[in-house]
Design goal:
Layout (H helix, E strand, L loop, with lengths): L13 E7 L7 H12 L3 E5 L2 H4 L8 E5 L2 E5 L4 E7 L5 E9 L5 H15 L3 E10 L9 E5 L2 H6 L3 E2 L8 H12 L3 E9 L8 H15 L8 H17 L2 H18 L5 H15 L53
């Protein structure tokens, strides 16, 4: 049993979770939570016992040298906490890990135990799936919940999905049965360029999370990375006439389907986001106008360094993601 020693009393805590694997096309969801940890200097306070939930022949441990000492990092799920400053400070409990290999119900119950101990008021689970969406258009992000009241209050879809599910769907359903409000945000990743990273999908998830929680997330270099990713895919698609023609077909279908929606609410939402980002003293986060960070009670002296994503793979390549069967309406 892991004790929650050293964790202060939290303010209006929200739990935000993402898991590598089946529910994480292009690594978009897990990268989004990693971004939150990095930008707000998240401090890990707990980790689940890897032997309880993971098959090490599927998710192997890694060996590394630390000051001449050989150490092993085990695949697991870790919890960290960050304080989002501003006029109305609040705390985010961040969960980042790997979809478990076994004992999913116990896995969810353990996470819900943490949520109960920390007084979490809302659980937001991030996911990403493969879809027939063109890389040249805004990334679709669906917000779904199993709670009809929550769907109406937060302008979300009430899930109607039926079919195979991953840990995101199982955790959301566990939250519902435990009486914990839960929302899933799903980003659609183009299936013809599914290999990670996909900073454009990560950015879309973070933008939707901003709107959902009414806070500002410092983006660092993510917007620039997203633009570079799209330029790279544009160039690669242009080299293959069949792919270019297919992308054009997806664009036409997308534009036709969404033409009635390209008005009022969407425009207002983008304008509100622009105003938030123009403000040098955002309501959420310690980031200053120049991208710096103010004091945080959970600050690390040596946060992980940021690396630029590699050039996207050639469209139509041999993707290995298992997200093909997912659907934006899943729990």
């Amino acid at each position: 049993m892991i004790e929650l020693e050293g964790v202060p009393e939290l303010i209006d805590p929200v739990m935000v979770a993402a898991f590598e694997g089946w529910n994480d096309a292009g690594d978009a969801a897990s990268t989004a939570v990693a971004h939150l940890e990095r930008e707000w200097k998240g401090e890990v306070f707990a980790a689940l016992d890897a032997e309880d939930y993971y098959d090490f022949q599927v998710n192997r441990p890694t060996v590394f040298m630390d000051g001449g000492v050989r150490k092993i990092t085990w695949p697991t799920t870790r919890l960290s906490v960050v304080r989002v400053g501003g006029d109305k400070p609040r705390d985010l409990v961040l969960i980042r890990g790997i979809e478990p290999s076994m004992r999913w119900r116990s896995f969810c119950n353990e996470l819900l135990g943490f949520a109960h101990e920390l007084g979490v008021e809302l659980v937001v689970i991030l996911g990403a799936l493969l879809g027939d969406t063109p890389h040249t258009r805004p990334v679709p992000v669906s917000g779904v919940t199993s709670d009809p009241d929550l769907a109406e209050r937060m302008d979300l879809e009430e899930t109607k999905y039926e079919g195979p599910t991953g840990i995101v769907g199982v955790l959301q359903e566990a939250c519902t049965h435990a009486g914990v409000p839960a929302v899933s945000l799903w980003a659609a990743v183009p299936h013809y360029v599914s290999q990670p990273p996909n900073p454009k999908a990560t950015l879309a998830l973070l933008n939707r999370l901003e709107d959902l929680l009414d806070l500002r997330i410092p983006l660092g270099e993510l917007a620039e990375d997203a633009r570079a990713w799209q330029v790279g895919v544009d160039q690669l698609a242009a080299e293959d006439s069949e792919v270019a023609e297919y992308v054009q077909t997806l664009e036409e279908a997308r534009d036709t389907a969404e033409l009635p929606e390209a008005s009022g609410e969407a425009i207002a939402r983008e304008f509100e986001r622009y105003l938030r980002r123009r403000d040098g003293s955002p309501p959420g986060g310690h980031a200053t106008a120049d991208g710096g960070d103010g004091p945080s009670p959970y600050r690390r002296d040596n946060p992980p360094g940021r690396t630029r994503p590699p050039k996207p793979p050639k469209p139509g390549g041999s993707g290995t993601s298992d997200n093909d069967d997912e659907d934006t309406s899943e729990d």
